[in-house]
Amino acid sequence: MQDSKLGPLRKGLLEFLILEIVSAGDVYVADILGRLATTDFATREGTLYPLLSKMRGEGLLDYDWRESAAGPPRKYYRLTDTGRAQLAHFRAYWASLTSLIDELGR
Amino acid sequence: MDKTVTISLNGHAGQFRLDGEAYDELSRYLDRAAARLPADSDRAEVLGDLERSVGDKLVARLAATQGSEDRIVNVADVEEVLQEIGDFEGEDEQGTDLGVLRRLRRLRRIRAGQQLAGVCTGLAAYADLDVNMVRFGFMVATTITLGLGALVYIVLAFALPISASADAPVPPRRRLERIRDGQQIAGVCNGLAEYAEIKVNAVRTMFLFATVLTAGGFALVYGALAFLLPVRAARPIAGR
């Protein structure tokens, strides 16, 4: 399929994948980049920082500062209750969407 | 280019020494990022995140240069670090993705529709003018300045990076070297040809033309480059 058609879809999904990754436990930016690096959703700091800031502004996630062994302290992200609720909602929607696609294609 | 700027980056206790070009490149990136973030309290935070990340990567790069860990950061360091961080993809307050707009505004040469070296196509895209207008302007300017306009063209042909089309990304600059393989005199034209992605014979013609135009003065430029540029042994096999 033409990649340009999938572009907007991928862009919109990125936010939910970040919710997924952050939900798995405390992570900092390099963890998120690392988890996505080998996938179709590989991204870089230039995209991730503004997105994380936006999501934090929407109350989906928050962070704590923690010392790191090497270099300056890092921000560790975690989901808020709103973020968890949105992730649950997204998962339910995704499940219904895939079953709809299966059904229509039958 | 001998100016050195000492800067501190968010979160890093140590300071960084950058040469002028590296400093300009980094400030451009951060200014661009700042311009693309809404002016609220989060802006300072995201910029801080970016700065810290630039600092982390510079520290790693400097630590990797054995024996000269305290060297001055050059533009290649900054370009690679920014490449790793990626284009800053914010949205403006109307929610418009500015990625494409910003790419259009960077002055470069453009290969699509080029006649000589793509300077006019690049200028036309930059200023949002018709390319024929730009070409006409160059011809008029060259005529009334008795050839000097052509010299401006030649300088721009080497100074500007080239990209395939108006909305293709601008490639990072490469290193300018003399190239021995296939040289006529000192390999200067050969090196310039690869640097600017212009055919070597066109480069030689431009040099001859400019030398005639400046009554020999431009040959000095060749001489200077022959002394200043380092030599690369051979062109990589993948070259055209």
Q: Can you put this structure into words, describing what you see?
A:
- The complex is a heterodimer of chains A (106) and B (240).
- Chain A is mostly helical.
- Chain A has helices at residues 3-23, 29-37, 45-57, 81-105, and strands at residues 61-66, 74-79.
- In chain A, strand 1 and strand 2 form a beta hairpin.
- In chain A, helix 1 (3-23) packs across helix 4 (81-105).
- The radius of gyration of chain A is 16 Å and the shape is globular.
- With 240 residues, chain B is mainly α.
- Chain B has 10 helices and 6 strands.
- Chain B has helices at 20-35, 41-64, 75-85, 99-105, 119-127, 131-144, 148-159, 188-196, 200-213, 217-228, and strands spanning 4-8, 15-19, 109-110, 162-163, 178-179, 231-232.
- Chain B has a two-stranded antiparallel ribbon.
- In chain B, a hairpin with a 6-residue loop joins strand 1 (4-8) and strand 2 (15-19).
- Chain A binds chain B through residues 29, 43-47, 49-50, 52-54, 56-57, 71-73, 75, and chain B through 11-13, 33, 37, 42, 45-46, 49-50, 52-53, 55-56, 59, 84-91.
Provide a brief overview of the structure:
Helices cover about 65% and strands about 10% of the residues of chain A. Chain A is mostly helical and about 110 residues long.
Output mean pLDDT of chain A.
87
Largest sheet features of chain A: 2 strands, antiparallel
Give the uncertain stretches of chain B in residue-range form: 91-104
Main-sheet strand order of chain B equals 1-2
Cα(first) to Cα(last) distance of chain A is 20 Å
Strand order of the largest sheet of chain A: 1-2
The CATH C-level name of chain A is: Mainly Alpha
At the fourth level of CATH, the homologous superfamily of chain A is Winged helix-like DNA-binding domain superfamily/Winged helix DNA-binding domain
Number of strands of chain B: 6
| Bulk shape of chain B | globular
